[in-house]
Amino acid sequence: MKRVRRHQGHFSYKNELIAYSFWSNTDDNQEPDVVLLLGAGQTDAIARMVAERAGTGVVVVEGVPHWHADPSAEDIEDFTKLYFESAYQKVASIFSSASMHVLAESQAAPAAIVLSSKLKGVGNLGLIRPLGFSVQAFGSTTEARLKTFRKRILQSLLQYPQSFLYDPRNLWVGAVITRAMLREASFASLSKKYAAGISYDSLQDFQHTAQVRHKAGNTISLILGEKDKMFPPEEITTALSSLHIPHVSIVILPSVSHSSLATRGSHKVLAAALKAVRNK
């Protein structure tokens, strides 16, 4: 019988034991073959809904609990990588999985790229509307990039697929993300962490990981949305073309924006991403 279950994990960071959750969708005695890492704020009910929509064989890891990182944001990069590494290893341990494909959404992509060249047992890699491929398009300074980021958030929210009229789940998703944001020590701290994230350039990391995964006989796929206002596909493809990285598959889905994977607007995004990493 198919069941979606919540699991608890912990990792140690600067003498603090930090709890987190992930959700599995598996039949009895089934080993999952895909781990999906969610973007910032995608916690609690969002992770559960994504696991339900993903179908069997998938484990969904909640977005990074960034409110536990230092308010200065100086350690947010290390904190994020440690969190997702700990979660991946916890999943592998619980299910005794020798190998799993990795999917990463939005802000989780930079960590997934690095970990996919480092961890054992990683299969194919799929990046869903990833952060880290178009830093220069956001501006030349931290302040400019944060301003552009906020502008793009607003543009995204004004798109019809983000409306509760299109999908009532959008209201719930907004509430969960807002709750995660409010757990920060201050608005200044939240801004610093988002600024650090949007300023991270993943291109060199991606170039290295693409070589590692290809040598291991695995694939790398990017699943992008044609109407994505946050990370427009043309910005990402332009950046990749300048590096001449071979062996990377790019899927651009028509009419798709930057909505949560838990909502109707991203139903075909999730399906395409799972198909991409499971394609041998």
Q: Would you give an account of this structure?
A:
It is a single chain. With 280 residues, the protein is an alpha/beta fold. It has 10 helices and 8 strands. The protein is globular and about 50 Å long. The two termini are 27 Å apart. The mean pLDDT is 93.
Could you provide a short overview of the structure?
With 280 residues, the chain is α/β, with parallel strands linked by helices. Helix content is 43%, strand content 20%.
Topology:
Blueprint: E1 3-13, E2 16-26, E3 34-37, H1 45-54, E4 58-61, H2 76-95, E5 100-105, H3 109-116, E6 122-128, H4 135-138, H5 142-157, H6 169-182, H7 187-198, H8 203-215, E7 220-225, H9 233-243, E8 248-253, H10 267-278
Parallel strand pairs: 3-4, 3-5, 5-6, 6-7, 7-8
Antiparallel strand pairs: 1-2, 2-4
Helix pairs in contact: 2-3, 3-8, 5-7
